Amino acid sequence: MTLVSVRSFSSSVSLGKAACAQVKPVHHKVRIIKKNLSPRFPELKYPSHDIKSPKFRPYLTHLDRVDHHYHNVLESDLLLIGYRHGQQPIYGNKRRHWDMSSPYQINRPLRKPKGQIVPSQTINPRDTGNIAKLQSISINCFVKDAKQYPAMAIGATLQLQQITGVKPKPIYAKTNVPNWKLRPGMKMGAKVELFGRDASQFLSTLTEIVLPRIGEFNGISNRAGDRYGNIAFGLTSDHIKYFPEIELNQDSWPNLYGFDITLHTTAQTDADARILLSGLGLPFVGSERIPKTLLDDLTVHPYEN
Amino acid sequence: MTTPVIRSSLVLSRIPIVTPDVPAFEKAFYQYQEQLERRLMWTFPKWYYFKKGTVAEREFSKAQKYPIPNHRNVWFPKGVPDLKHGRDRRFKQDIILPKKNNDVEVSTTTDDGGESAASELQNLDDIGRPIKANSRITIFDEKNDQTSLERKLPRTLYLLIKNNNNNEWTFPSFEVSNDQINKGLHNIAEEGLRNIGGDKINTWTVSNTPAALIKHNNGINEFLIKSHIIAGKFNPTNKNEYKWLTKEEIQDIVSDEYYSKINHLLSQ
Distance (Å) from the C-alpha of residue A32 to the closest C-alpha of chain B? Predict the structure, then answer.
């Protein structure tokens, strides 16, 4: 008796193999989620927003003051500020097509953009669909001394948890720097990303309680930003004591750790993000540098790519 | 046919001062969600906030109401308690803060009435004094004084002015004469506001781009410039009638045709 040698696409049984084929092309690419097959823990099958799920956590527990201010006041103002009559899209530097001078270029991935490796974004005219909004706030607390005293990373985690009320994630060293005695895999601190009401709560604490009390703080630098609407700034360990969660329980905090705050917005440019954030109560200082390419948004570009 | 005249109008608004009024249904929803959150919260880490053996720890422990632990000969009508660190894990945990000496003082003096003002002054130094919120309804709300800026705190108010010629309520509107044509609509509107309302007003114009254009039947093109009042007050110089109104009040007072053209500009 011989096995049938015709291979069916739907199964690997006909090949006489126990599991699915790993030889390309692999046709069984659907990931099997074992918890969905097992009858043992039925509550794990509910999505996390279902009240029956053990993951469920209510998040609409109070009115969001910052969110309401954004929708009621800021949103329409931002639309009006960003609007310019006859605004044209500023096309980003995209991946280029090959000239097909060689047959090896068929099916080849596109060429890198001119002068850079990663393609840049196209900046669209501001309209009702792309008004900048605060997406999330991420806080990154990297403690330099944690390589010598690993317990400091735990202290930094606790401090972030105390200030934000959200469970932080540990951060580990990635690089090997023998001079600093830094090795990959060492726990160096913690990070946390805040969304929704947690972010609003943190932002209002920052703008109403912490920043006004920092004497030397004049504002976030106008040079800060990653070009795509995310603005970052830092607080040193001396500034952390102004957070009310820390201030009212100072005896428990022999060491405080400074951290970097990144404000993630949906703004297309840093200038737009700064307008949004100043509307949310964050001051900015210093001279502003706007790239030349962003200034000629009223001229029609001859090319589209 | 006459040449069309350009007018520049100012949509001057006072943004909400307090959070919006929450309807009863939403309030119930938020309360339900909050209770759920409290039920799912971690147990209060007493060992972290109070060092063992301190006075503060003793006072805190004394103030708590601890649930009755499980016992084999006792019948619990609401189910067997599941205690961990002094908390019944089936329910939310109520944290009772111990009363301080100055809390007691406040309650006794307010009963007398006469000394309350003096004690409040003394207690202003105390950071731990109970927070007392001001009323959301001001005296101007009670008097229904529509010329005041301190009314309808959770709503956006807009400045409306009565036109002396036709007795109609509109946004303050200013004609753009031919020699002013290069001045900019927003500058004309700002200047016009100071002419009719005095210069003791601090406003912030959102953009030099008009927010809307109203084309009137008589050929007048009215551009609306958006602005917020930051400080000061509108003080009419020529006894003009003015009002600070919410969206609904504007609908009652202006003509239907005018309202249909400005409706989309007004926020809650």
Answer: 31
